[in-house]
Amino acid sequence: MRKTRRFVLSCLAGASGLPLMLHSDLGFGAGDGCEPSAATLRCLVEDPRRARVLGHSYRAQFPDEDHAGVLSGLIRSSLGLGSGGALLNRAGLLAVVDARVRAEFGAGDIVRVHGWVLARTEARLCALCD
User: Which of 34, 65, 112, 122 has the most CB atoms in a 10 Å sphere around its CB?
Assistant: First the structure.
């Protein structure tokens, strides 16, 4: 196949948009049996460096949850994401987390971690960053 100038330019144009696609919300999909991974859940935390301090304290208080697989499973379960189905982007996951955190504060499902009062899901997300 002979490469024309138009073909080369279209390939270069598509390649320049690749970094934008890799950093977009497309990587946060949870559809057809897929569940958000631990890495996807970690990306929901805005300041992972500060979250690590809280996460370390949470893991020390709850040693039975001191594993990324256990934590991500508990977070997915509490968010009701285990069934898959709907395609969720980062904004969608953040909305689900926000609703869950509000519900946990309302129900008193809180933990005290390193001087902070956090909803259990917030604390688990921090622990996932540790």
Answer: 122
